[in-house]
Structures are given as C-alpha cells and as structure tokens.
Write a structure and sequence with these properties.
With 266 residues, the chain is α/β, with parallel strands linked by helices. Among the domains are: 75-194 and 243-260, Spore Coat Polysaccharide Biosynthesis Protein SpsA, Chain A (Alpha-Beta Complex); 195-241, no CATH class. It has 6 helices and 6 strands; from the N terminus they run ααβαββαβαββα.
Length: 266
C-alpha cells in the first residue's frame, strides 16, 4: 500500500513538472513572436533572421550621404559611389568662417563627404557659402569635437569611408592635397597619421611634426641633443605619437579610437 502511494506521488510530480516546462516553453515562444528584435545580438545582426521579415531587411550600417527626396542622386554622390570614399569631420565656429571655408572648399572639390559640428549654435550664417547645402550641419552649443564624434561618428555610420579626416577648424590647406594624402596612407599601410608642417611655419610645437624633404612620411624624430637618440624612447613626443589637431584615421583605426573616447570627458 505504501509503495502504491509513492508511485502515485511520483507520477503527480512528473505530471506537474512536465506541464510547467511546457507552459514556460509556450510563454517563451509567445514572447519571441511579440518582441522579435530582442533575440538579435550585435555579433550576429548581419545574418539574423526575424520570423516573418524577409532576408536583407536588417541594415546594421549606414553612411553620411544625403539622399534626395525625389530619389535622384547628385553627380557628387554618383562619383563617390564609384571609388573610394573619404570623410571630413570638424568643428566649425562662425568666428573661423574664413578658415573653414578654405578647408571645406578644397575637400569638397575633391569629392569628400563633409560634416560640420557647430559648437556655437550658429548654422544660418553658413548658408551664404555655396557649398553649405552639400554638407551636413550638426549643432550643439558649447560642446567639444570629441563630444560630437562620440555621438555622431559611430563606426557603423562611417564604416563606408576608407579614411576619416578629423580636423580642427584652423588648419591651413593652401598646399594640401587631400586625395593624394589618402593615397600615400593607403600605399604605405598607415592607419593613423598627421600631415607634416612646413619647416617655416610659425606654429610648430613639436619637432616630429616638421615635414621632411627626403620622404613622404616619417614615424619618429631623432633628437641629437643630450646623451641619446630620441628614437629609443617609448613615449611621446619622439615616436608612437600623433598630434590630435588634424588627425587622419583609417576605417579600422577609427573604430578603435571611437571606443576609447570617454563619454564623461568627450
């Protein structure tokens, strides 16, 4: 008699456990159908399939190319789509209008995509320049260029650009050729670089920034003063160092740099 009760009790437990598992499974399936995107992770978003949605509808990446409301592409966009894509991103205060105009005019003429960060909140006064309608304007008062970069230059947004020119607004570009510079970076496998300065420039703060006549680029500065050469040092400003005023980064280098921009300080 006692063993019969034990068998009945165990059978009841199995029945209850089975029904609980079945109920949980049904609830999970209903939840997935109601919220299909919750099951997609960042690592498999390109290949994930979401129930009734057709393949290819999920687009994890974008770009900064402006689209026409009427579906027609401008000649500049068509030209950029044919070859390499480059992006110029920089802060732009109205007090530096002349300098910004010089920079943007040169980059626009070489078919760059341009995005300006207006830290003074003034956008309207830029519309007098003929290129104004062909660039992206983002405004936020009293924010740094790193604040803008962290929020508007996500790697998935700029992934279509081979190189990102992340510059300050006061650079001098009279003798600078943007696409030729990008070609030098590509041919020599450079991931992060900084345009060298004219030796006669009055604004040279670090010797490593001075342009050398005998080469397209250099990675270190030899310091002949003192007891040793600068190239054996591990830290700046002798080697492994790039000034951040006119940075040029490859797509992969920007992805790394973006993740290192600290939100509290950006």
């Amino acid at each position: 008699m006692r063993s019969r009760y034990i068998i009945v009790f165990c059978g009841a437990l199995v029945f209850i456990f089975y029904n609980m598992q079945n109920y949980q499974h049904e609830e999970t399936m209903l939840e997935r159908r109601a919220r299909p995107f919750d099951s997609i992770t960042e690592s498999n978003i390109e290949t994930a399939k979401v129930g009734y949605l057709p393949d290819g509808i999920l687009q994890p990446r974008s770009d900064l190319e402006m689209k026409s409301l009427w579906g027609t592409k401008t000649s500049q966009v068509k030209e950029r789509n044919k070859g390499h894509r480059y992006l110029l991103a920089m802060p732009a205060g109205i007090n530096q209008k002349r300098s910004v105009n010089s920079i943007v005019s040169k980059f626009i003429s070489e078919n760059f995509t341009v995005i300006l960060f207006h830290y003074d909140g003034n956008v309207d006064d830029w519309h007098s320049l003929k290129w104004s309608k062909n660039v992206i304007h983002i405004s936020a008062i009293n924010q740094t260029k790193w604040w803008f970069a962290k929020r508007f230059l996500h790697p998935d947004v700029v992934s279509k650009y081979d190189y990102i020119f992340f510059w300050d607004e006061n650079a001098r570009v009279k003798n600078f050729l943007p696409r030729r510079y990008a070609n030098v970076m590509k041919s020599d496998g450079l991931e992060v670089s900084h345009p060298a300065l004219n030796p006669k420039s009055p604004e040279i703060y670090h010797q490593i920034n001075i342009r050398r006549k005998e080469a397209f680029f250099h990675r270190r500065k030899y310091n002949k003063q003192g007891s040793g050469n600068c190239y054996i040092a591990e830290g700046p400003t002798c080697t492994r160092w790039v000034e951040a005023t006119v940075l040029v980064l490859s797509r992969s280098a920007w992805k790394c740099a973006w993740h290192h921009i600290q939100v509290p300080d950006s």
